[in-house]
Design goal:
194 residues; alpha+beta; 4 helices; 55% helix; Gyrase A, domain 2; Topoisomerase I, Chain A, domain 4
Length: 194
């Protein structure tokens, strides 16, 4: 953790450091949401899918080019055509619920219209990812809060300064939790609008 606490240092710098630390979890959350299907095809939906290749497990994006030429189609073009079978197998077993079409050169994945039960499942996935993000942000708050308390105990900072930092810490935490709720709310509207 890259947060320095020093008596008399401006609280703004402390807030900036804490926000930077917490925002890594928000960025991770946003990246995870790209994998949640909202009706538009996006390479991130499958590019991290693990493929058995050359005696090891590799992400799909390392053995092929993944593109989304239109809103309901994904195209996988492997760099080695011998990989087509393994890629097709991994796509069939994935939780996307799609049937890949292999023409001997590329694999096409036509995304079906979403059913209401699938939408409900995706909303549940969204909420579990949101909760994981909030927990990660709160864990940063807990670590920093413990750091502040330890410094107060060892008399490296005064109680007043520690209280000010704790208030700043809570302010940043609330702001980022609210931001993650906003991101999730937007994504939920996208899912339900399909």
């Amino acid at each position: 953790m890259n947060i320095t606490i020093q008596e008399g240092a401006p609280a703004k710098q402390f807030e900036k450091d804490v926000e930077l630390e917490m925002s890594t979890h928000i960025k991770h959350f946003e990246k995870e949401l790209l994998k949640v299907r909202t009706g538009r095809a996006h390479p991130s939906m499958i590019e991290d899918l693990r493929i058995s290749a050359y005696g090891s497990s590799m992400p799909l994006k390392e053995v092929s080019a993944v593109t989304a030429p239109d809103a309901a189609l994904l195209v996988v073009q492997p760099w080695d055509k011998a990989m087509l079978g393994e890629i097709e197998k991994a796509l069939s077993l994935s939780d996307l619920g799609v049937t890949p079409m292999n023409d001997g050169n590329i694999i096409r994945i036509q995304l079906p219209k979403m059913s209401s039960s699938r939408r409900d499942e995706l909303v549940k996935v969204l909420h579990s990812k949101l909760e994981a993000c909030k927990i990660a942000v709160r864990n940063v708050r807990k670590e920093v809060s413990n750091m502040i308390r330890e410094m107060e105990k060892s008399k490296k900072i005064s109680e007043d300064y520690g209280r000010r930092l704790a208030e700043s810490l809570q302010k940043v935490t609330d702001k980022l939790i609210m931001h993650s709720d906003g991101i999730a709310s937007h994504k939920e509207k996208e899912i339900k609008a399909l």
